[in-house]
Q: What sequence folds into this?
């Protein structure tokens, strides 16, 4: 089971986040393992991520683990990464740790180097490998919305909220610019 916080991991209304998602394996008898996430004490002892990967696969902008699909004996996991939205958000509303990170690294660097969904895969459900960490080179591809395994390969549909024009700041003013990377994309991965 993948967790999520609404609005790509940053719920402004309830003042939660930005915060990353976790992956939990639940057994029929209600026991559970933490696969990807934050270590914690539980009534059943300390739970550490079996994958050794912290929440959001180590990226706290991965606010959802949105969908999973098995293809050719690999379990694929797609995230929703809302970091591109930082371009339009005020850091004033961010909690301390996240604000300090954004101020130190810089919004432009985060958007350039961390935006776009992440796609991961695992052959055993515990050890995960990144397939792509930048939305297939499109920062506006915020999420892997659907995946379908077929005899032709693995089809991946992206969530891309942006249109053919996008607001950008130029010389202190907002202007609209053409955005050829807006709109959903469908990809076919052949293995």
A:
């Amino acid at each position: 089971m993948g967790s999520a916080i609404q609005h790509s991991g940053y719920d402004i209304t309830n003042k939660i986040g930005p915060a990353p998602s976790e992956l939990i394996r639940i057994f029929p008898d209600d026991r559970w393992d933490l696969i990807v996430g934050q270590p914690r004490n539980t009534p059943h002892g300390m739970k550490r991520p079996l994958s050794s990967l912290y929440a959001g696969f180590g990226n706290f902008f991965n606010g959802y683990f949105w969908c999973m699909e098995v293809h050719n004996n690999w379990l694929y996991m797609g995230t929703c990464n809302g970091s591109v939205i930082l371009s339009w958000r005020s850091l004033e509303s961010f909690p301390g740790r996240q604000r300090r990170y954004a101020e130190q690294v810089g919004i432009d660097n985060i958007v350039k180097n961390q935006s776009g969904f992440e796609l991961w895969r695992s052959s055993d459900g515990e050890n995960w490998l990144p397939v792509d960490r930048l939305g297939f080179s499109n920062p506006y591809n915020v999420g892997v919305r659907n995946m379908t395994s077929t005899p032709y390969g693995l089809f991946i549909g992206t969530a891309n909220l942006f249109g053919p024009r996008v607001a950008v700041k130029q010389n202190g003013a907002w202007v609209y610019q053409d955005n050829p990377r807006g709109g959903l994309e469908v990809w076919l991965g052949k293995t």
User: Anything to note?
Assistant: The chain has a mean pLDDT of 90. The two ends are 25 Å apart (CA to CA). The helical segments are 6-9, 96-105, 107-114. The chain is about 10% helix and 40% strand.
